[in-house]
Amino acid sequence: MTDADTWVQIADIAASLCFLAAAGFAFIAALGVARFPDLLTRMHAATKPQTVGLLLALLGLGLRLREPWAFGVLVLIGLFQCLTAPIASHMMGRAAFRAGQVRDEFLIADELSPVMDHEEPRGAP
Predict the structure, then answer these.
(1) How far apart are alpha carbons 57 and 46 in whole angstroms?
(2) Tens of pLDDT along 22-66?
(3) N vs C: which end of the chain shows fewer Cβ within 10 Å?
(4) Transmembrane region positions (predicted)?
(5) What integer best gives the mean pLDDT of the chain?
């Protein structure tokens, strides 16, 4: 067995460990969505571990493919996910708060109610 074969085996084992860890994070996210009591904690459970799980899956895929162009595409996918997931979850949480879907008894701090006292226009300006 040559040194190149050894590095290929090590990369394959590391990729499979990344895939198993990604599956574990996806399972934790699904468990949190099923078990948490309110909308905001379910959103937190869905976005945080799922993003880390996706990054681990992309890392495993990069280790398995071992192509420079594929690694560049996977980095762009991970970067786009890290930039858009927090913004999307923030906007969904804010819309749920405006729609009255957030249970006040589960809030520790409520910083949005004082600024929501005025009537906001609906639709585009």
Answers:
(1) 16
(2) 999 999 999 998 998 888 888 888 888 888 999 999 999 999 998
(3) C
(4) 13-33, 69-88
(5) 84
Residues 6+ apart with CB under 8 A from 32: 41, 42, 44, 45, 46, 49
- DSSP H helices, the chain, are 3-35, 39-65, 68-98
- As given in the structure block, the two tokens for residue 88 are 């999307």
Greatest Cα pair distance, the chain, in angstroms, is 72
Type of residue found at 88? A
Domain ranges of the chain: 3-116
Kindly report, residue by residue over 5-28, the tens digit of the pLDDT.
899 999 999 999 999 999 999 999
Beta carbons of 45 and 36 less than 8 angstroms apart = yes
Q: How far apart are CA 112 and CA 24, in angstroms?
A: 34
Q: Are 56 and 18 in contact (CB under 8 A)?
A: yes
